[in-house]
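Subject: Interface between my chains keeps coming out wrong

I've been trying for a while to get a sensible model of this assembly. When I model each chain on its own everything looks fine, but I need the whole thing in one frame so I can look at the contacts. Pasting all components below, labels as-is. Any help appreciated, I'm running out of ideas.
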Amino acid sequence: MEISPDLVLSLYRSMQRIRKFELRLQEVYRSGAMPGFIHLYVGEEAVAAGVCANLTREDYVTSTHRGHGHAIAKGVPMGETFAEIWGKPIGVNGGRGGSMHIYDPSCGFLGTNGIVGAGIPIASGAGMAALLRGAGQVAVSFFGDGAVNNCAFHEGINLAGALALPVLFVCENNLYATETPFNRVTANTNVASRGAAYGIPGIHVDGNDVLEIYRVAEEAIKRARAGQGPTLIECATYRHLGHFEGDPGTGYRSKEEIAEWRQRDPIERLAHSAIESRLARESDFLAVDEQVDAEVEQAYEFAKAGDEADPGKVAEFVYAEEGS
Amino acid sequence: METREISYVDAGVEALQEEMRRDSSIFYIGQGIGKRGGNFKQSRSLWEEFGDLRVRDMPISELGQVGMGVGAAMAGARPIVDIVFLDMVMEAMGQIVEQAATIHYTSNGKFQVPLVVRAAMGSVRCTGPHHSRCFYSWFAHIPGLKVVLPASAHDVKGLMKTAIRDGGPVIFIEHKFFYNKKGPVPSGEYLIPFGQANVCRKGNDVTVLAMSLMVWHALEAAARLEQEGISVEVIDPRTIVPFDERTLLKSVRKTGRLLIVDEAQQFCGFSAEASAIVSSKAFDHLDAPIRRLCALNTPHPFNPVLEAAMLPSVDSIADEVRRLVAS
Amino acid sequence: MIHDVVMPQLGMTMTEGSVAQWLKAVGDPIAKGEPLFVVQTDKVDMDVESMRQGYVIELLLNEQITVPVGTVIARIADSLVADVTAASSMTASSMAASSMAAGQTQLVSPRARRVAQELGIDLAQVKGTGEQGRVREADVRAAFALQAPQPDPARVENRSAPVARRHIAERMEQSVRTVPQFSLRRELDAQQLTLVRSHLLPVVEARDGLRLSFTDFLLKALAMALREVPDLNSSWHEGRLEQRREVNIGFAAQSPSRLLVPVMHAVDGLAITQIARQRADFARRAKEGKLKPDEMQGASCTLSNLGAFGVDEFEALINPGESCILAAGRILPRPFVVDGALTIRPTLKLTLSVDHRVADGVLAATFLTALAKVIEQPATMLI
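Reply #2:
Try treating it as a single job with all components included. I did that and got this:
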């Protein structure tokens, strides 16, 4: 795979967009201004960025409760995402969904999800529709280690394999399902090996190496588009923050473990290795940082200025129009 | 339009064939629905005509099947997921309730989920505890789902078409007993809109609201009661969501007496909802308390004597009407 | 849709009425404009037409029962499919009004309560046939049916008087109570009158198909006399004498069952044949119950002719609101003195009753003389 400066900078930008967005969100949330609760993606940016860099607007993505990164990487507008998480009517879903129910058909984003694993068979379904349509679309399902022991994982992936659906199943194994260590409740902790159970390739990847993720995803997506069926990719990664904002994340994880993983920060890693191999200059990265800061700030301002919801609209969209 | 006598199951197949010919985005999945044509022959000939891509056998993965249906619907297709037995739909409840029913609302109208989940409820020849349930009211309780209970060959065809063309999730619940029963079905194209009850028998003394197979039992009971000078009006709601309360209220305003007959249990069943609607909106027209005749509050026994004791029958319906008239 | 049929307001003074006869039964179709029932008021029996096309689904009032104007007395549905009683709007207070007093435990269905209120039935008097003695709709309707008088020819006492009778009774009481009336009598030579009539009878019959009656001539004569003595073309009303511009005369169209008094307008301007035509028309419509309320009022004077009933002479009571009433007996050959000699002449005995507030004896006598002159010289009716 040819690693161009453009690719590096675009992957860097993608990860920084997620990182800075999440951190700004954290600030606002801590101020008490936002309703509900949020699950931040800080530390896992390489997965969303690396996979989504291979997708077009017409491809589909299903996501999780920790899905802001997927949404932004897939192309859901940042300001509307911020506003949606804030519960504002100018949000991408009118404030009706919030963090765990972000939907955007304009870029094939089939939703973050409050139900663990639910997105897996949904992505298979999108793959089925893609097959029927025959236009070469693919679907990607992001899920965590918590989902791999759920029926939805088993049924959704088996179906994709049996029907040779154009789907990519991406497991973000951050070692903990909410606060439960993966290895405490799982008989076979090698997620990638489960691919064999469904007759599909299962690939293990360093989840903090965005270029590696990009390469593996690129290949899997090519296979899918060519009608060669689904792939399971396990990304070994880690979340720097707690399970949800308000959870320090240290009650069930050691400080040492956290520190160790922080050293493998995917964004720092990419910048360092690119600068070392002279693919790009520090100033290039700083320039991107500045631009992303501005973009995030703009998104914040957009969301902040939004009005409160109109109670009169509470009963809209319960049922779809006939025949639509 | 001329009519011909065909079976309930064949009427459904006709609807599917005609719709799938009309709209190439419709596909049909379920266990054994491909070459085998389905447990009850409810998908007979579809695989031969439309092939693997649009008519696909499924593993026993109800959750996976319905989840796929949700995703495919969101991505622009029109899936029909045949779970065959209503009891098995339980395995997929999460995808139905948390996903299919809510996405249109939660996405602020940006996504639609035009999904049909098809299954058969009720008992025939002692199908037993795992293959006889009638919990259609659970779906009715979830905003965003439409719930259809066709009770005749004529209705199943017209309602199936409407279900397929609906822009949202529809739970389409047939009754196993009906499948091989014949009835008059028009030969041309027709659709039955949702929310339009069928007054299948007119009467003046008592209104009987009955669902699915109970409609047939109620009609038989009404014919007997006619001999005794009791005139019974039988209403088949056809769809629970949307529910045609106008027709029911009109009828009760006329007769003043209501009996609800349901193969599902009484406690927190749909009969409770219908009672609440009538007692609040037609209070001054009730000449007697509303009565409900439902399955007993037990799981479904296999033994035929026990099953018969548990379920409403033509006799018990007639008895209830007589009690209603006397009260 | 269900439509209420109410007791109609016919004429300004009507406050209540009854159904003399239902012309349709429950379940019958009815066309717009088709008569549904015959209403009975103080003034008139008349057909009431349906305002709608549909089916009669409820008849709520028994015949001969008086109810106030505006009472719902029947219901019509657009179609038998929508064969339904419309939702009533029972308020909490109306419910309370019809509920039992504390301590009593009579069970009453909501439907029965509503119907009881509509029909004015006291629930305490109703026996329930439902479970635990619950009163149902049928029980209330049964109680209502028992209230209505049964049409039984053998029963003489306790018959509720028909509305018309009651109203005539009221008016006559009023007449006696409030109008200081006195009467004058005169026996007229009716020979010329009978000759003129007999001449004209076949002519008018052949030409116009009308039968001239003495009443027609008397009406004309009365009109001419009222023109000549205009003070009597007036009435006493609340301390004032109201002069009328038109000469309107009521005439009693007596039938064995009822008294109706249609009013002919501007009689002075009418020819005899026109009077005859109008009279015949009024009589026919009176029989068919098709008189309009405004055809029953506006007279200053009434003619009551009992000649056809074998009465020689009689005294009539003034209709309140009028100034006089002329009672005419039969024309009969009687002993009469002409030029000092006894002879037999057809004579007519008139009794004129006059409101003393409007006229004194001399004026009344002047009027009677003027009247007599016209009648005894009927040729003057031509000019």
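Reply #3:
Confirming on my end. The longest strand of chain C covers residues 341-355.
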